[in-house]
Amino acid sequence: MPVLCSLAVSPSGRLAAVGARLAWSGETMADLGDNVTIPEFSCLLQMDPYLKPYEQDFRRRYELLQKQLFLLEEAEGGFDQFTRSYNTFGVQRRPDNSLYFKEWAPAAEALFLTGDFNGWDKFSHRYTKKEFGKWELILPPKHDNSPAVDHNSKLKVVVHTKEGQRLYRISPWAKYVTKEEKAIIYDWVHWDPPQPYIHIHPRPKKPTSLRIYEAHVGIGSPEGKIASYNNFTTNVLPRIKDLGYNCIQLMAIMEHAYYASFGYQITSFFAASSRYGTPDELKQLIDVAHSMGILVLLDVVHSHASKNTEDGLNRFDGSDSCFFHSPPRGEHSLWDSRLFNYSSWEVLRFLLSNLRWWLEEYRFDGFRFDGITSMLYHHHGIGTGFTGDYSEYFGLQVDEDSVVYLMLANHVLHTLYPDCITVAEDVSGMPALCRKVEEGGLGFDYRLAMAVPDKWIQILKELKDEEWNIGNIVHTLTNRRYGEKCIAYAESHDQALVGDKSLAFWLMDKEMYTNMSSLIPMTAIIDRGMQLHKMIRLITHGLGGEGYLNFMGNEFGHPEWLDFPREGNNQSYHYARRQFNLVDMDHLRYRQLYAFDRDMNRTEDKYGWLAAPPAFVSAKHEEDKVIVFDRANVLFIFNFHPNKSFQDYRVAVEAPGKYPSYHCQ
Asked: Dihedral (C-alpha) 453, 459, 462, 464: value to the nearest 10 degrees?
């Protein structure tokens, strides 16, 4: 029998040893079966012995990953080359200035290229059919040796189906798409600038404490319009730096035809949204962030795709499958979107190359993977509650194609980019989601602590101050899997969306319009609201996880909600903006909330409690409404009592002595 090595060498060498030993012994992939061992599975079991009954599930997942890596080695020369397929698909300019076009359209009868370059002739430039549903076309350079397709000119793929239809499509690999002002459909624009942007600044080192500023470029201005990459670079980045955040999570960057989808209905996966500016302006934004020591994560959506056909992936080759499962498996009933077929070779090529593209071309530092729960289970989390019983995370309800894709994605990313950060948005609590692939985990660095903001909203909506359950608050903030890092947050974009309210609005509501001026006496509602706003954020920061996240504007208690222009609001931008001008007015109390958020982050930077082991909670007193815990040699004392203060309050400390204090005033 072959002796299988663990996954711990180089990109192509990781499974080369496995392949060599299999060949040497005369064994085949079919013999892997039960002989596959998870190299560090004992570490996982040591962390959580209750996973032992599910060892076979872990082994099967790991075996499927091993097989996938072996096949990549055999067919593509390893995943390093495979994940650079953006260099061969779509359109590529060769050294002689000829243009090479390549697409995957397995159900198509014929493919043609049309555009500005040929006067929109639909039949003059035909692709040649190759193996495995691939199509190729080469355009020689012009007489002056310049490329046949000019930079910034429009293109379309014309797909002829077996049923005789003629379809006009955008290449799935398009790097830039734009929309005319009054048009509905996006256009594929050839992006090949004569002087592309060159990054100057190196990536910052991966921080031990991750403080994330979740941001949306389009709403990054007080003005009622779509803000730009340049505006974000000039006006928002300095604020983020001043606030003490060391990481930005950028939403709605991958191109999405419908602005009000908040960037979660992707139409062009390789294109940075043109509504904010050009690709080079996004590259500059990231470069400037790096110069400030700030990492930039991309909110990546690989859980589903827009149903758009003319400017999306849906029915690219005329079939109801191609990149997706055929219906009903290939459709998400709640999101009205298409679901990827993660077992397809070409879908893996597309998605893994997509991750690599954003890291290589734009120099993002990692990803927040959206909608992971929908990927992990065949039921997509619809109508399903998770109690934490381990049987919910294993068995036939788990979509192992998706699980293996996520393991593969994390394996590739962390092998090629050891400092890459991946964050999972999962509400289910899947065990080992944030443990190494070598242990049998899915390989994410962090998961979002999604129960925390829900708890705060529930408390503010349903309970009077004197009814707050102190033990329940502590339980929610500390109830996370040991050894799997969490990003804690009091609120994110979800809580700010129309239909809900931000914490500040729940706390102070309409008084925020009239009583936030320091030129008038502070009302009881504003006083209570500001103190609880600070306390909720600080206790979440200190107790809730190994990273912290804030959505833009919430650091200073941004009033109102977030709503994008749509038919239901007369296409208004009034609520699709962030009123940073409120912080810049000396007489408004928003400045005080901003200053507290800044000081909170700077204090964490000094003491590093996010990188420390979980806090030790020494008191959770229901009658006094007091919570006491220490973490990273910092003593936290919170008095949530609505009308009682305490003097000479005795608390336990690890080391006796005098402690300098900071008050939430």
From this structure: -160
Q: What is the mean pLDDT of residues 616-641?
A: 96
Total residue length of the chain: 665
pLDDT digits over 265-292, tens only? 999 999 999 999 999 999 999 999 999 9
**Nearest CA to 218 among 560, 563, 568?**
563
Query: Taking a C-beta distance cutoff of 8 angstroms, is the pair 426, 468 a contact?
Result: no
Evaluate whether 184 touches 178 at the Cβ level (below 8 Å): no
660 contacts: CB under 8 Å, gap ≥ 6: none
Residue 370 annotated as catalytic: yes
pTM of the entire structure?
0.93
Instruction: Give the Cα separation of 387 and 397 in Å (integer).
Output: 15
Strands 366-369 and 295-300: parallel
- In the residue annotation, 40 being an active-site residue is answered as no
Catalytic residue among 317, 425, 491, 563: 425
Element (H, E) at 448: strand 446-448
Structure-token match 């043109």, residue found: 274
The separation between CA 604 and the C-alpha centre of its own chain, rounded to angstroms, equals 24
> Which position among 63, 370, 491, 630 bears the catalytic label?
370
Q: Label residue 309 left, alpha or beta by phi (over 0 means left) and psi (-120 to 50 means alpha).
A: alpha
Contacts of 142 (CB under 8 A, 6+ apart): 148
Q: For 244-344, where are the alpha helices, taking DSSP H only?
A: 279-291
What is the spatial distance between Cα 151 and Cα 232, in angstroms, rounded to a whole number? 26
State the DSSP H helix or E strand holding residue 144, giving kind and residue range, or none if neither. Answer: none
The CA-based angle 618-619-624, given to 5 degrees, is 165
CA atoms within 13 A on the CB side of 532: 24
